[in-house]
Amino acid sequence: MADEVLFEFLHMEIVSHVYKEQQSGKGEMDSKDRAVSVSVLEGMGFRVGQGLIERLTRDSPSFKDELDIMKFICKDFWTKVFRRQVDNLRTNHQGTYVLQDNKFALLTQLSSGKQYLDQAPKYLAFSCGVVRGALSNLGLDSVVTADVSAMPSCKFQVVIQKL
Amino acid sequence: MADEVLFEFLHMEIVSHVYKEQQSGKGEMDSKDRAVSVSVLEGMGFRVGQGLIERLTRDSPSFKDELDIMKFICKDFWTKVFRRQVDNLRTNHQGTYVLQDNKFALLTQLSSGKQYLDQAPKYLAFSCGVVRGALSNLGLDSVVTADVSAMPSCKFQVVIQKL
Fold first, then answer.
1. In chain A, which end has fewer C-beta atoms inside a 10 angstrom radius, N or C?
2. How far is it, in rounded angstroms, from Cα B149 to Cα B143?
């Protein structure tokens, strides 16, 4: 329904706006322009993630460890933001987590398969930021990257930064 | 809940991004910068409104007249996008409509009352675009403006452009 796609539509508009803005006046974007665009989108996501997790954990008991936090992100948080649970969570028990979503909400508007795979990164920067922002508010510094091998399936890699 | 505020948070980020971008390098924004920002946000809203109404009216019977369309916007459309119905719809029966929402979703994150009234317009440009985009897809060209006298109450004025 429309209320579900509102976020997706708005997200599409932002991605397109941020990329256009970097490209303006130039023919092709170089890798620096792309990096700036990704960073802008990631930053927006970070702040949105912080806001969301604050709301979501307001009435939650505190978490017992890092894995407990990651499970919360994969279930409750993912459901609220991306409308389904993560399909698979793997970890090396040393601070690296791989979250696999086989039908990632922000990629379902795009054509499935491998045809537009080169376009995928720009639709994932915001979401990486959302996850990083949420973890940051729960006391975990992290690096979050995303990887797509066939749309709309997506893997997020979260590496917790130890002090 | 978080899924309800996701759109609001993202909207806040966009407004802040678009305004910052116009302001960059300058101390104060002049009226031209503000006009550009409003126009960018309105354009984003327009495209989102077009997409949403397409989804929403896919299975609807066609509308019998202009007033019928406006009623649909005030009830079904408003509920999906702004999570409540318009409180009051008035018309002069000559193509001008005033939609009053006493608790407008995108203003509830801001402080109530009259204190930040000068900040209100930037949070309404996107929504004006959404309404204009929806009407445009239903075959009505319009000019949509918004007016706030005390937050979070808001009046949208829609003037249908006759050919």
1. C
2. 20
pLDDT of residue A3: 61
Nearest 5°: phi and psi at B144? -120, 125
Question: Chain B contact for A47, CB < 8 A?
Answer: yes
In single-letter form, the type of residue at position A128 comes to C
Choosing among 3.40.225.10, 3.40.50.1100, 3.30.70.660, 3.30.1380.20, the CATH entry for B4-160 is 3.30.1380.20
| One-letter amino acid for residue A67 of the chain | L
Contact state of A55 with B1 under an 8 Å Cβ cutoff: yes
SS (H, E, C) chain A: CHHHHHHHHHHHHHHHHHHHHHHCCCCCCCHHHHHHHHHHHHHHHHHHHHHHHHHHCCCCCCCCCHHHHHHHHHHHHHHHHHCCCCCEEEECCCCEEEEEECCCHHHCCCCCECCCHHHHHHHCHHHHHHHHHHHHHCCCCEEEEEECCCECCEEEEEEECCC
> What is the pTM (predicted TM-score) of this model?
0.89
ipTM: 0.86
